């Protein structure tokens, strides 16, 4: 019997499984993943799950029955060590080999470690897995001092969760604004104000030089000369794609495993999907690697369909979301390269959107508590639509009417 | 558990036992029911879990929040009884709930 082996048991893997079966794959499906739990939703780890608002059961992407119904052989808690392309097999930890006809790499990313003096203290955390979240959760107790290094989405989401738990929160960020990598100064300043109003102490242009034990707690020394005392620190300075398996097997990698519009690598029997892969975007006409659930799911569906001889080129608008307090950010598209920013609505009302244009073409939109603008933005971006700034600003025009 | 009926756009009907406390969306994805994509996994960010609540059930289902209402305005073919199924939580009173799936989630 033919066999599809999937390495990495998370968001991308689940969509690959469900698409394979829906499209009629009748061979074996084997899921190998080094985490022990069934695939679970990562986004709540910094949000609802950290605030104890959802159960472990709700965290699962699919219940156990789904894997039985889909006739999947689960090999969880197992790590793939190498790919042997000549023999069409992979080697697992422990030396066992597993044959494949088609292989899907869904290995995602891992946290980027921060080499710093004191980085191995027991109260230093990173957040990528459920196990990480379970450890951090025990620290989010009213009155505790939490230090966050890095003001990206995850750092700020943890800040919001920690504030809700009654912690005192300090965020240090090397850049001169929060979310510098993912959004414009307009949106950064909104989040800086909002977090400050909730009592978060945000220190920009600030780095941590070392950390040490100080009495019953810990102390961080800053590059600005000051110090911050804390009970626990969470470091969120980005991720690294897990490309080593592919690289060692001789597949082309460049900040991600390179794939075509169907998710295939240089080897037609090996696909790569989700955060670990990098593909040529037809919308932006350049290679992109995304860190987003919708992309992981979409690429996985594309690759699984291609394996079932149903080739549809992947061409979806990248999108992201972030929930902090009761503020919902939904981002459509990629803003790099914009030459004009247009703000629609009023940031002081905590409900506005920011359009990024290049020669009038809508590249991306950040929508804060503005789901209509977000939903329409996806359509505008896919259509490579051109919009005038005065139209975008005019609140009497409904987003729907932007489509023309 | 509550038995929920999902009626596809072509009229075919699927049923699933959905645990109390989980959502109408959870019930669909766990049981391989087509037509609900749920790209954001229930975070109310994607609007790809749109359903119509059967007329007989509308009064028994909680009302959508303002944010959900805004999202529903721009789904394809919105109606009075449109809901995001991830926001409809199954209660013990919902045994036999019937929802209709739209033609498309985009
Ligand atoms: C705290 C947090 C919050 C987030 N919030 C959002 C959000 O709000 N919205 C959003 O869109 N995205 C969010 N993301 C990003 C999102 O989780 C990722 O885009 C998504 O998980 C990517 O899925 P994936 O399947 O490609 O890879 P991953 O989820 O990274 O999974 C890869 C899996 O493969 C395993 N693996 C790797 N190598 C091997 C090997 N050799 N053998 C066996 N197993 C292996 C890994 O351990 C892991 O379990 C968040 C991420 C985190 C950590
Ligand atoms: S699952 Fe995304 S809005 Fe319901």
TrEMBL record, chain A:
What InterPro entries does this protein's entry cite? FAD-oxidoreductase/Apoptosis, FAD/NAD-bd_sf, FAD/NAD-binding_dom, FAD/NAD-linked_Rdtase_dimer_sf, Reductase_C
Going by the UniProt record, its keywords in alphabetical order are: FAD, Flavoprotein, Oxidoreductase
Annotated Reductase C-terminal domain residues? 319-400
Its required cofactor(s), as named, are: FAD
- The superkingdom listed in its UniProt entry is Bacteria
Stretches assigned to the FAD/NAD(P)-binding domain = 3-300
Q: Which Pfam families has this protein been placed in?
A: Pyr_redox_2, Reductase_C
> What do the Gene Ontology cellular component annotations say?
cytoplasm
Please give one Gene Ontology molecular function term for this protein.
oxidoreductase activity, acting on NAD(P)H
Tell me what this protein is called.
Answer: Ferredoxin-NAD reductase
From TrEMBL, chain B:
What does the UniProt keyword field contain?
Answer: 2Fe-2S, Iron, Iron-sulfur, Metal-binding
* Cofactors required: [2Fe-2S] cluster
The name of this protein is (2Fe-2S)-binding protein
**Family matches, as Pfam families:** Fer2
The segment(s) forming the 2Fe-2S ferredoxin-type domain are 3-105
Q: Which residues cross the membrane?
A: none
Choose any GO biological process term that the UniProt entry carries and state it.
P450-containing electron transport chain
Gene Ontology terms for molecular function: 2 iron, 2 sulfur cluster binding; electron transfer activity; metal ion binding
**Similarity comment: family membership:** Belongs to the adrenodoxin/putidaredoxin family.
Which PROSITE patterns does this entry report, sorted A to Z?
2FE2S_FER_2 (PS51085), ADX (PS00814)
